[in-house]
Sequence to fold (380 residues):
Amino acid sequence: MDERLAWLTLTNAPGIGSRTALRLFEKFGSPQAALSATPAELRACKLSSRSLEYLAAPESAQLDDALAWLEQPNHHLLTWCDPQYPVMLREISDPPMLLYVHGDPDLLSTPQLAIVGSRNPSTSGNETSRQFARFLASHGFTITSGLATGIDGAAHCGALETGHTIAIAGTGLDRVYPARHRELAHQIAENGALVSEFPLSTKPHPSNFPRRNRIISGLSLGTLVVEAAMKSGSLVTARLAMEQGREVFAIPGSIHNPLARGCHRLIREGAKLVETADDIVEELAPLLGLLPKQAQPPLSPVESPNTVQLDPEYQALLQALGYDPQPIDKIIERSGLTTGAVSSMLLLLELDGAVASAPGGRYYRTGNSPGDQPPLEDSA
Fold:
């Protein structure tokens, strides 16, 4: 049995996770030797009866499917012994013993920043994720995230505009989850990499995603949390990053925004407060030595809306809005304008990107309003 098939057999066995596979590798020296061990030797390694039964008679159809998948263009398998296996990931306490890769495996060894956050972010959170990813990718970072809806998807999209991105999946790579990101996954495979430790045909299961998160943080120099509620899975990724000795960054928000509370908690626990993408570049640059020079001019600041003339009434409306979602009756009360005027002005401001709507008929400033400081201005 060749080494690749031996690794697939070992890691496809039920009950054998990364820690058990590593223990077997360290005891026997290779996956082939582990598979050649006697039942008594394997029982001494505390393998379950299910694991022993599978290793005695592996499911050939499952292994044949994996080998057929690997024969397709741009499909790769990185094992623990592979020289391409990323050094950063090897350093964590529970590294995966193999990685399925659809895309460029060399990207796994490039300087990476993880960007994670809520699956249901605010409009401004979504845009912040995209802008930070776009800026940081242009500065030489590969942006790594989990392909989820919301902040993850926005980060992947932003990175693809100026550089590269890696998506860590919580399923086998023969399926895309969530299905709405199928086209995004194709773009990532062509201009980055889709990665999973899970065997092909693995369906999404809640227990898969914390395991996926340790790979996201483990590959990265640091993890940026954009928006997260108190029980967000993004906090799991941040905690794992801290345990792995990696940097953790968090973007603060309004005290009234429940999606900011997770970020505020991280900041209280020692995460670095981030206001601009330059804060991250400055923090991580010493870890990289010299960052690659930009292949393009610096990103332009976010442009202010042009179509709305900022007469005193519009200025009063923007002042009444603030950055927290506000119900329209409160906006009317604060601005002193009529209901009809506020409704029409909000529509124009929303079309120009200066204002966004939130559930419940509420509105807030996006940070793109005239006079706002661009969040990603290059200070260099």
The longest helix spans residues 123-138. The two ends are 56 Å apart (CA to CA). Residues 105-288 form a domain with the Rossmann fold fold (CATH 3.40.50.450). The chain has three domains: 1-65, 105-288, 302-380.
